[in-house]
Amino acid sequence: MDVHDPIARAVIECAADAIVAVDDGLRVTVWNPAAERMFGWTADELLGRVLPIVPDELKAEHNAVQERLLTRRSGDGGQISIATRRFHRDGRLIDVRIDNSLLQSRDGEPLGWVGVYHPVEEDEVAQHHMAERARLVRRLNDIVADLNAELDLGVVLDRITAALIELTGADAGGFVRIEGDRLRLVNVSGLPQRMLGTTADLRSSLVGELMRSGKTVKLATGARRLDDLIWSELDGLHTVALGLSFLQNRPYGALYALFSGRKIGHTELELLELLAGHAGVAVGNAVAYAEVVRQRAHERAVIDSSADGIAVLDRDGLVRQWNPAASALTGIPPDEAVGRPLPFELPALGEMLTIPLETGVWLNVLVAAIEETGELVVDFRDVTEAKALEEAKDLFLATTSHELRTPVTVVQGFASTLANRWDDLADADRRAAVATIAERAQSLGRLVEHLLRGARAGADELAVTIETFDLVKVLEGVVAGFRSLSELHRVELEVEPGLPPARGDALATDIVLGQLLENAFKYSPDGGEVRVRARCEGGELVITVEDEGIGIAPGDHDRIFERFVQGEAGDRRRFGGIGLGLYIVKRLTEAQGGRISAHPARPDGARTGTRMCLRLEIAD
Questions:
Q1: What global pTM score does this model have?
Q2: pLDDT tens for residues 138-163?
Q3: Which SS3 state, helix, strand or coil, does residue 403 take?
Q4: How do residues 329-346 score in pLDDT, each as one tens digit?
Q5: Number of C-beta neighbours around residue 159 at 10 A
Q6: How far, in Å, are 60, 78, 168, 268 from residue 85 at the CA level?
Q7: What sign results for the dihedral spanned by CA atoms 454, 455, 460, 465?
Q8: In this structure, is the dihedral angle defined by the CA atoms of residues 260, 266, 269 and 275, taken in order, positive or negative?
């Protein structure tokens, strides 16, 4: 029927049933008197306006019917009847049955739709249809609740396609994700699993057509169009329905329903559109959850890989996270730390606190607050070495000032005496004063040399040359030089016959041996024998320097090689020095691949005498 024909217009005006026609923009073009009586609006109020009688919850059904009509043109029995509800002007809902038809031009182009509305209070068929619709809605609600309760994306997609087949009776289904200008098949049901992961061009696909149409659901029929991404794998396929899923108001993917047996109706199309919409919500939840999981895993990886100890405290101050570095620094494993208070004091927010642990470790502790959760993040790092260096600097200043004070005072005093009383002093007194100044200057020179060597050793700047050298010659030279330095000490040298040459640095070894002999003299104030021995042992050259002095306190045999540490307990300044000699010895020895250690001279461990043991490599 041509609704613009005068005769047709007269029939419409006289019809007992409400007749409503809309163009392809959904604007009303026909609104007969029966429509005025049924819905309460006059024709003058609605002609040219968008049809206002479709409830929001039924717009998907309305769109599905229109899409279905588009596939029935060309004389394919082009009418669809549905039982549904529509708005009255006063806001109440009216139960109606609508016979929908497509309006076409003479050349078959769609112009709009026309609906004939019948009251259905007594229509049992319509009541049955409404009951079936209610059942489907209830089932859809159950499915949506099930979808929204699941947060695993793969499971969500499986349930969506399973629900699609259950509700629409489709023979197969699938979900494609939009990835830029491509589509990727990420889930299938009723199709071969090998198809997963295949891609297709978005623009030329039905999804691209649907997006360009501005609609959310689409039907495709006919063999000419069934050559897209997935449906060619389904034998006997005659109809494809697809609905868009949105994520954050942007198209995320599309849900396909494929039909090779039964026919598809507007109800199935409506269910597809609704399910695709809910799928977008469920997928959005799963994607957001996956992102939260990924973010937490990233944060956990950062925390676990941090060299700093990191603890997260809840509102009650109890530990909730405890990374590996925290366990290493405190010695407390996670299962003993989590759920308990922090094992050390917390500083105020924005401040740093340096605290010692019972284990001797010093920590710098910082705290930051997470305002959203009320949690505290505690960061703590090991500053034991820095603390020891700070103490060493203080000790260095105190020790150096002590060691420099006496020789400088003596030099100043004798120099002042010579300058002021030169003519009054006898020649012997002048010579004695000059000799004292020279001796004290020599002491200052040795002290400065120790300081320079200690600084280079601490900065790893000790330069050694690894080569083959005659160890016996070095030993004989060092011993000969020390035999004439003290009348109280006797230096004896014992060298194993046929001692092979050493591999290392001859000058560094000379300095090491000289320092060991100097210490042997220094810590044997009453004199005695100092015995130097050299032999081969276990593929190494072993040189020992043994004295009869005061010895080393138990537990200090390793400490004496640290900076600013002396081996004599009590008044540590009694023998002078700044405690750098053995530190330099250790660094020079290790720089040439050797080892140095300290031991009691007597086998019973009594604190009488010291035996220093130097081990060097034998030359190839």
A1: 0.39
A2: 665 656 666 566 667 777 777 777 77
A3: helix
A4: 888 998 988 999 988 888
A5: 19
A6: 13, 22, 22, 18
A7: negative
A8: negative
